[in-house]
Amino acid sequence: MSDRNGDSLIQARGLVKRFGELVAVDGIDFDLQRGEAFGFLGPNGAGKTSTMRMIGCVSPVTDGTLRIFGLDPAKDGVAIRGRLGVVPQMDTLDMELTVRENIVIYGRYFGIPRRQLGPRADELLEFVELSERANDRVEPLSGGMKRRLTIARSLVNDPEVMLLDEPTTGLDPQARHVVWDRLYRLKRQGTTLLLTTHYMDEAEQLCDRLVVMDRGKIVAEGSPRDLIERYSTREVVELRFDDGSRPEDLSFWTEGLVTRVESLPDRVLLYTQDGDAAAHGLHERGLVPESILVRRSTLEDVFLHLTGRSLIE
Amino acid sequence: MTSLALALRPLEYFFAQYRRVWRGTAVTSVVTPVVYLLALGVGLGVFVDRSASLPGDISYLDFVAPGLMAATAMQVAVFEASWPVLSAIKWDRQYHAMLATPLRVRDVVIGHQAFFVFRLLLISTVYFVVIAAFGAVESPLGILAIPVTVLVGLAFAAPMAAWAAHTESEVSFVAIFRFVILPMFLFSGTFFPISTLPAPLEVLAWLTPIWHGVTLCRDLTLGDLSAGADLMHLAYLLAWVTAGLVAASLTYRRRLVV
C-alpha cells in the first residue's frame, strides 16, 4: 500500500455496505493513521456499526475497497483479526464465568499460551481497576464494570488498533467518565483508537480527528475544533419560550445580532461569536424568553448545521 | 496455523462452561441408564421374555440396553445443539466473541461439535459400563458401541446445530423434541423390532438415523455382525454427520457474518 501517508493502518475507498435494498454505508473514504484516535460521529442508523463490522472482518464488503494493515478482509480475516482489539456495542462476556476466566479464555482464542495469560490478565485487570473482582462471576457486575472488562479483554492480544463501537452507550455519567479516562490513557500510551459514538461529548473528549456520518455518508471531516470553527460559531444562545409566547418572526428580533438562527421544536438556537452581547441585545429590544442560556458551540451544533437534525432523537 | 488447531480453541470455552454444570450431568448420566435398565430390561423384560421371542432368541435386556444407549445419545445431542447454540448467537453471544478473534466460522462450528464429541464420549462410556454391569454386553466387540454412539449423537447434533443457527426463536425446539425426537425414541427399534410396525412406518423408521444407530450398537454388543448391513448403517450415520456439518457451516455463516 503506497499511500502518501506511509503509516496508514486502515484505508477505505468508496466503501459500500448494502443489506438487500437498504444502503447502510454509501461510498465512504477514510484513512486511519497509526497512533491517532479517530471517531465516527453520527446518529443511530448512520452506518457506523456496519463500517466497524466490515473493519472487524465479520461483515463482507459490498463494494469499494477496504484495506486493514494493507490486507484484504475478504482474504486475510484471520491475520487481521489477530491484530485488532474489538469492543462491540453489545457485550459478549460470559456471565457465569469469572472476570479473570473471561480474559484468559478470550486470550486462548488468539492462541496465546495459558502461562502467559495469567500474568497478562492480572495486568489488564489492574489497568481497568477490576483486580478486586478478578475471581467474581461477571453477572452481578455493574454495566460500567462489564464495559471495563470488555476493554481489558480486547487488549489481551496487544492490538495495534482498538475498535470501540459505542463504548459508553447505556452507562451512567460517572461510569462513562471512568471508561473515558481508561481510553484516554491508552491513547496517551500510543494505542490507535477507532470509535463510533453518537455522543458529541465523547467525540470531543477522545477523538483527535473525526468524520460526521449521516445516512451512510461522510458529511464532514476534521478535528473537533476544526469542525466547530468551520460549521458553527464560537457561541450559542439557547432560548426557551412558554407555550404560545414564542414570537412568530424571530428574524425581526435577531436581525444584526446573530449569524444564524436554528429553530427547534423545544428551543431556538442563535449562533454568534459573542453570546453575552447577543443576549444583551435581545434584552434591550424587549424579547423576554422563559429562559436564556449562553454556551460554547459543540459538535452537536455542527451536526445540526450539516444535517438539520439532532444527534440524539 | 492448521485448521484443526484453530477449531480446537473454542473447546476451552465450552470446557470452562461445562465445569460449572458437570456434577449435575454426571449424576444424570449414571442414574438414567440404571433406572431405564431396571425398569425396562429387568422389570418389563421378565414379561417380554416369558411371552414372546425376539429375533435370535435374545433376552429383552440384551435387546433394549444397546438401543437405550444410542437413543440417550440422540436426546443429549439434540438438547446440547439447540439452546446452547442459539444462546451463543443470541443471548450470551459467545460465537460473536470468538469471531472477533482469529477464529473463523468453520472453527466455531467444528469447535462446538468437538465439545459435543466430548460430552457424548462421557455419557456413552458411562452407559456402556452400566449395561456391561447389567450383563447386557455379550461380545468384546461391544466396546465399539461407544464410538458408534458418539457418531449417533453427532448425526443429530450437527443438523440440530444447523437448525438452531437458522431459527429466530427457541419455540421450535420443544416441538422438535415432542414430534420428532420422542417418536424416534419410541418407534425406531429401541424398544421393539421395527418389523412389527405397519409397512409404511417401517420404511419411515429405516430413514431415521436412530434406527441405524440402534441396530449397529445392538449388533456390536451382541457380537452378531453382518458386514454389509453394518457398514451401511455406519455410512448412513456418517452421511447425516457430513450433511449436518455442511448445513451448519451455511446457517452459521448466514447468521453470524452479515
The radius of gyration over CA of chain B amounts to: 19 Å
Q: Could you state the order of secondary-structure elements of chain A as H and E? A: EEEHEHEHHHEHEHEEHEHEEHEH
Q: At the third CATH level, what is the topology name of the largest domain in chain A? A: Rossmann fold
Main pleated sheet of chain A: 6 strands, mixed
Percentage of residues in DSSP E strands of chain A: 25-35%
Largest sheet of chain B: none
- Note poorly predicted spans of chain A: 1-5
Oligomer: heterodimer
Ends of chain A: how far apart?
40 Å
Total beta-strand segments of chain A: 13
Question: How many structurally independent domains of chain B?
Answer: 1
At CATH's second level, what is the architecture of the largest domain in chain A?
3-Layer(aba) Sandwich
- Mean of all residue-level pLDDT scores of chain A: 93
What is the number of domains of chain A? 2
Name of the CATH superfamily of the largest domain in chain A: P-loop containing nucleotide triphosphate hydrolases
Helix content of chain B: over 70%
Structure description:
The complex is a heterodimer of chains A (313) and B (258). Chain A is an alpha/beta fold. Chain A folds into 2 domains: 8-223, Rossmann fold, CATH 3.40.50.300; 233-296, Alpha-Beta Plaits (2-Layer Sandwich). Chain A contains 11 helices and 13 strands. In chain A, the strands form 3 sheets. A 6-stranded mixed sheet of chain A has the order 5-6-7-3-8-9, with helices on both faces. In chain A, strand 6 (161-165), helix 6 and strand 7 form a beta-alpha-beta unit. In chain A, helix 3 (99-109) packs across helix 4 (114-127), helix 5 (143-154) runs parallel beside helix 6 and helix 8 packs across helix 11 (299-307). The longest helix of chain A is centred in the middle third of the chain and has 16 residues, at 173-188. Chain A is globular and about 75 Å long. Chain A starts with 7 loop residues before the first strand and ends in a 6-residue tail after the last helix. Chain B is mainly α and 258 residues long. Chain B has one domain (3-19, 29-256). In chain B, helix 1 (3-19) packs across helix 6, helix 2 packs across helix 6 and helix 3 (60-80) runs antiparallel to helix 6. The longest helix of chain B is centred in the N-terminal third of the chain and has 30 residues, at 22-51. Chain B starts with a helix and ends with a helix. The interface between A and B is medium-sized, with 30 and 25 residues.
